[in-house]
User: Fold this.
Amino acid sequence: MGETKADVVVDDGRAKFSDLWKKEDYWAIWLGFLVLIVGYGLFLAQTPPKFAETIDKANQTIKTVSAQAPFRTIEYYKAQADKKKLRARDSEAGKTIAAYTRTPGGWKSNPLDSFYKSKEVVDAANAKAKPTADDMKVKEDAALAVAQTAQKAAEAAGYKDAALNKAAEEKIGDWRKAQGTASKAKASASGKPSNIFPTLATLMVVFIVFFGLGMAFMGQNVVKFGLGFVGVFVVAVLAFMMGSQATMKFYGVNAEAWAIILGMIIANTVGTPSCIKPAVQTEYYIKTGLVLLGAEVLFDKIVAIGIPGIFVAWVVTPIVLICTFIFGQKVLKMPSKTLNITISADMSVCGTSAAIATAAACRAKKEELTLSIGLSLVFTAIMMIAMPAFIKAVGMPEVLGGAWIGGTIDSTGAVAAAGAFLGEKAMYVAATIKMIQNVLIGVTAFFVALYWTTKVEPEEQGYSGRQVGLSEIWNRFPKFVIGFLIASVLASLVSGSLGSDLSNAMVNEGLVRGLTSPLRTWCFVLAFTSIGLGTNFRELAHYFKGGKPLILYVCGQSFNLILTLIMAYVMFYIVFPEITAKI
Assistant:
């Protein structure tokens, strides 16, 4: 009685048109799209004339010097630097957003430094760091003079003397290293007074309204959600603070890890206060963040690195995922198939993002998802320190090391950080391969949903002969993945239409780093805080019996490391060495 057409059940009695405004998967999409629409309006609506002029001038310089010299000259690198300085997020709107999405900053011994630094303290720190910065600048200038002399010698010989060319290339490399060191020293001596308490309070209110909109339509008590969100937000802020501590940053124990740790400590000691529980909405936050992540997966960037990167990401990943799942079932005989596949996807695809999508597709238990993410965060912290150290110790080529890191370390942020330890090439290759791998989030979720509805559940429930319809697969498929894919396609189309240089300035250094990336980071930390606050150690203990989840992760990741390294070497150095030479 009283049922409208909008509420008519579709096909199997579960999917309803009203799901579009009553289910959190869809609200994750709508909220993500709202952010993207704002971002497109602020950063992509109009290209500043200066951008096009600077890019044209720099590209002409690069074209000229590249035609003359067999190596990358000083002028080449200066022209590249001119293009990199172009950032849409440096607009007034971008600076405002940056100020209000800012997270607690770095500190060593005084946690208050993460939130507040007085002018006196900053001036004293700047004065202390200035002599070092000045010294590094002198060394940079000296290295540049030496590089210019070596380059002129090679130029005078018409670039036909191999020894002079090599010497010039080495001296230019020395100058580049000195330039990077000087830049870091200058940043250390250029601190500014800060007080982020007001902006954090404002951001908290914005988030309450932002997420509260969906909560209202989903029939939840918005007032209780808002009051509870204050507690979740405070714990998330503390997690950011702990993750920004110097020692924690060095060892890769980031805000996401601290969010789970702090949340679990609260949940398993004093207990999560009942007033906070209405805001413990793990999937709501993470799904919204994953839709925003889609804007960072750009197809033109994927194409730029070529077939080698695609092979490393798209061939190795499904092999490792399937083999790890089979290993867990046939060898370890894990009782929970959902835990098995969630850990396998987490470890082989791209960490927590894949775990969330896969858990939704197979309807894994909350504790199973928590366990998978916990394992991922622990091994990510270990690998982002150990892998660069090992790669340097054995003298592995930078491109190969970057490809290995990109295909094995779970977290996107950790991949970039680990790659940066090796150098610019390694960071670029690692980040791009991880981006390519991120595309598999949606693919993995679809096939897991398909396999679970047609194979696993029919066998477990004793109706293996029943034919499963498309509607049942659709109902199982996590809808927020569609938002992720649409965001990726739209951002890729815009990026491709602008060209690589303008795309970097407008999309990567505007839409992404200026808006979607900082908000995504907040969404992820809020989600991990909720995971911690909703986790009971006694509930997890059952899944650790026999240590099978740990054994699965270690064996699967070991296989992943070996196979990825072999594939990366074959693709980048045997099959497509010409692509590697251009990186």
